[in-house]
Amino acid sequence: MIFIGNSCRLLRPSDMFKTDKDYPKSEFEVSKNEYIIQAFDKIGLRVVSNTGESFFGTGSMENANASANYQRNQHGFEFLVEFDGKVKLPILGRIDIAGKTIREAELLLEQEYGNYFIEPFVLVQVINRKVMIFMDGGTKASVVEMPNDNFTLIEAIAQVGGVTDISRSYRIKLIRGDLTQNPEVFYWNVSNIGELKNSNILLEANDIIYIDSKPQYFTRVLREVSPYLTLITTLVTIYGVFFKLKQVQ
User: Fold this and answer.
1) With helix as H, strand as E and coil as C, how does the chain read?
2) For the segment 81-112, what is each residue's pLDDT rounded down to a tens digit?
3) In a domain, 236, yes or no
4) pTM for this structure?
5) CATH number of the domain bearing residue 121
6) End of a domain among 97, 126, 155?
């Protein structure tokens, strides 16, 4: 058994996220937890009035002082939550925002901007939420940004170009939670329509998707022994040349 285990590691050394046979498989439930803003998140911010008048984030910043850590994009103005959980915003300066949900952050900023604008309406969006996808035995990896809260497993796979020829589409592992503290592990099958209805789940930030692959034992063995075969062939060739030269002499 030890030999078999060592052989598997030798032939498939790039495999990742393996679980023991008795590792609990989680039953999937739609998460009811809202995303919590964290340090180093990037947030998109728009501030308008309830009558539709733009204060900033959707047009010019005539009514706001520019901040050094923003960029303009389709989400409004982009701001970085700094290492201490604070974000530097126009007019307000540094505001402690980490640890709050998006809804809580919007309410907080509406109160703060209410001191400067009449009935402000604030839209906050975290724009750097990501999921990671590994396939082909861990030799291919992609980081995919979540465009919205309704980002599904199928959309994530499509973003990376779909599965490959050696992918096991019937064995997709989703790992969720802190990797150091017994994360939840789910298994999904997208190989047929019957299973697909149970597989198109909503993803969460920092989910890890691992698409299992078919074992390429012959290719791996050939790759491992090729240098030795090349060396042997070279030595035999050199020996043959010297042997013929000796016969000529």
Assistant:
1) CHHHHHHHHHHCCCCCCCCCCCCCCCCCCCCCCCCECCCCCEEEEEEEECCCCEEECCCCCCCCCCCCCEEEECCEEEEEECCCCEEEECCCEEEECCCCEHHHHHHHHHHHHCCCCCCEEEEEEECCCEEEEEECCCCEEEEEECCCCCCEHHHHHHHCCCCCCCEEEEEEEEEECCCCCCCEEEEECCCCHHHHCCCCCECCCCCEEEEEECCCHHHHHHHHHHHHHHHHHHHHHHHHHHHHHHHHC
2) 999 999 999 889 999 999 998 899 999 999 99
3) no
4) 0.61
5) 3.30.1950.10
6) 126
